[in-house]
Design a protein that fits this description.
The protein has helices spanning about 1-20, 30-60, 60-65, 70-90. By secondary structure, the protein is mainly α. It folds into two domains: about 1-60, no CATH class; about 60-90. The protein is elongated, with a radius of gyration of 19 Å.
């Protein structure tokens, strides 16, 4: 279902962006707020997709249900990955 949403909205948003590029001003306060809100929404969607669709499916799989040691190792790996990405984000 998500693929349908992305396939329908992507061309619409590209056309909207092209149309709005003629009136966009970089230093306008409302433009800065809009860009901030859109960045926050896209970051929230990415976090949701990563946590709910990817990690939850992996952590609820049959391989991890049987082994507590494997669960702990996977949680540590996920935390290390999040920490590494946070360090990289400092320079982005």
């Amino acid at each position: 279902m998500a693929f349908f949403f992305f396939a329908i909205t992507t061309p619409f948003v590209i056309a909207l962006g092209i149309a709005l590029s003629t009136i966009y001003r970089d230093n306008n306060p409302s433009a800065l707020i809009t860009v901030g809100l859109l960045n926050a929404c896209s970051a929230g969607l990415l976090i949701y997709m990563a946590l709910v669709d990817l990690l939850a499916a992996e952590f609820m799989g049959p391989k991890l249900r049987c082994s507590v040691k494997m669960q702990i190792n996977c949680f540590i790996a996920a935390l290390l990955g999040c920490g590494g990405m946070s360090i990289i984000a400092k320079w982005a």
